[in-house]
Amino acid sequence: MCDDFTREQEDAALARMESMRGISRRQFAALGGAAAIAACAPAEGEALTIADAGMVEKTVNFETADGTADAFFVHPGSGTFPAVILWPDIAGLREAYHMMAKRLAGAGFAVLAINQYYRSAKAPVLGSFMEWRTEEGRAKLAPMIEQLGPDPVMRDAKAAVAFLDAQAAVDTSMGIGSCGYCMGGPFTVFTAAAVPERVKAAASFHGGGLVRDNAQSPHKLLDQTKAHYLFAIAQNDDARSPDDKQVLKDAATAAGVMAEVEVYAADHGWCTLDSPVYDKGEAERAWGRMLKLYEDAL
């Protein structure tokens, strides 16, 4: 739900950043990659730890029903590991998500972070989250977003699973996990519905549109899956749609699938490293719950 509703919290966060560090909204939007991440990170405390020693990382391409997708693939240097499909937020695959994928790989997974906009352009389409907040960024992404929906994402998920199952680093005896942020939150459910025999865990962080008024609403697809779920909901998303958490719980119960549904004390975007509302404490808590989900389900 990266819209005008969540923009208010981002404006407040950027105002605090400008006051504390002299960085304006315009300057932050102009920052890219590591610079934006560094500007947004908490002022005190230790830096985010990423275990990258011995990692194998590369940009890969794989065929889908709609063309050739590009993605960032990273895994430990030796051995086989359960695979995870990572769906970025609305601003797309970029350095922030490379870093998040590398950290997850360091925890013992083969991670495929997908450029969901591959039908239009190679990644990175935008360099940082705040580029999405500019008029130019929104205009650039608008036609790309229109090409996405449950059916295209499910086709992409099937192709991603086929790619992963062909990789020497992937342990195909274990289930595949999925995680998604913002726009990517519902994509995790679409992924589990696309390949239910392989996708066994799905984690949605501040996911938008998990409860919709149509037949392909993610909550209505849970009974087509065999996955365990983590739905980590932003407090401002919950304030706007307070019934969604119970709808998700009821749908999971009816579908007979395990689901942890919780509202976190942070705003939409809190898990993404280059978001102005990144909240390290709640992001770390969500991270731990995701690892527990994968431990239990894969």
From TrEMBL:
One example GO MF annotation: hydrolase activity
Organism: Pontixanthobacter gangjinensis
Occurrences of domain Dienelactone hydrolase (ranges): 70-295
Keywords: Hydrolase
Gene3D superfamilies documented for this protein: alpha/beta hydrolase
Record has Hydrolase as a keyword: yes
Domain of life: Bacteria
Entry protein name: Dienelactone hydrolase family protein
